[in-house]
Design brief:
Elements lengths: L13 E3 L1 H12 L7 E5 L8 E2 L1 E5 L7 E5 L2 E5 L4 H4 L2 E7 L4 E6 L5 E2 L5 E3 L1
Parallel strand pairs: 1-7, 2-6
Antiparallel strand pairs: 2-4, 3-10, 5-6, 7-8, 9-10
């Protein structure tokens, strides 16, 4: 009798905190018609080279990583995954600001204003 081994499901490149998942749910609740999810990408911009960008998505790209959250689909741009592996995405709000915050173990530096990062 041979034993069948199963592999655990692959771990997502980015871990979302409950607060980030709730923010995605809030965004999806008021999303424009035709929106299928929210997408994280790292376009080239800012003084350090790469920035975090979160936008609505109206169609899926087969190269993007797809994460199902309680509030809707969350996509990670396929070209950005390598820069984000092991990151934690959180949503933080206080009296003066609100936004997604990233703990990225791949970032080797960031600009003074915190808008961009280097890997």
């Amino acid at each position: 009798m041979t034993e069948t081994k199963t592999r655990p499901a692959p771990k997502a490149a980015v871990t979302l905190t409950p607060s980030a998942e709730q923010r995605i749910a809030d965004l999806m609740a008021k999303a424009p018609e035709g929106t299928i999810g929210v997408k994280l990408s790292t376009p080239r911009r800012g003084c350090s080279g790469l920035a975090y960008s979160v936008d609505y998505v109206s169609e899926a790209n087969s190269f993007d990583e797809r994460i199902e959250t309680p509030g809707g689909l969350f996509f990670i741009d396929g070209a950005s995954v390598l820069y984000l592996i092991g990151s934690v995405m959180d949503w933080r709000e206080d009296d003066f600001q609100a936004g997604f915050v990233f703990e990225n173990p791949n970032a080797t530096g960031s600009c003074g204003c915190g808008e961009s990062f280097t890997v």
